[in-house]
Specification:
The protein is mainly alpha-helical and 90 residues long. Helices cover 19% and strands 4% of the residues. The chain has helices at residues 51-54, 67-70, 74-82, and strands at 61-62, 88-89. The longest helix has 9 residues, at 74-82. The chain starts with 50 loop residues before the first helix and ends with a strand.
């Protein structure tokens, strides 16, 4: 075996209610929430290219790390999916 087997006996399991969380409803951003403008050369603002969806053959995919959710953007992503502007999140 290339790797040693994980020793589950060393896990310390806690009930969900006893765990500490740094993300709560107070950080959630909704479509009507006030936001500070953000611009950075490494993150150019793009426009949606709807040609693929118009033919019904392609979806609109968003690939981001978990930090996007940890910063409270979940409701914004849900809004984009409900409006069918975003079809897949990875």
């Amino acid at each position: 075996m290339a790797f040693a087997q994980f020793d589950r006996s060393r896990l310390r399991l806690q009930p969900l209610a006893e765990r500490t969380h740094d993300v709560d409803r107070s950080v959630m951003m909704y479509p009507d929430s006030p936001r500070e403008p953000f611009e950075h050369p490494a993150c150019p603002v793009g426009r949606a290219d709807r040609r693929g969806r118009a033919g019904g053959k392609h979806g609109d995919v968003l690939l981001r790390g978990a930090h996007v959710l940890r910063k409270g953007n979940g409701p914004l992503l849900i809004d984009l999916m409900e409006r069918r502007l975003l079809t897949h999140v990875a």
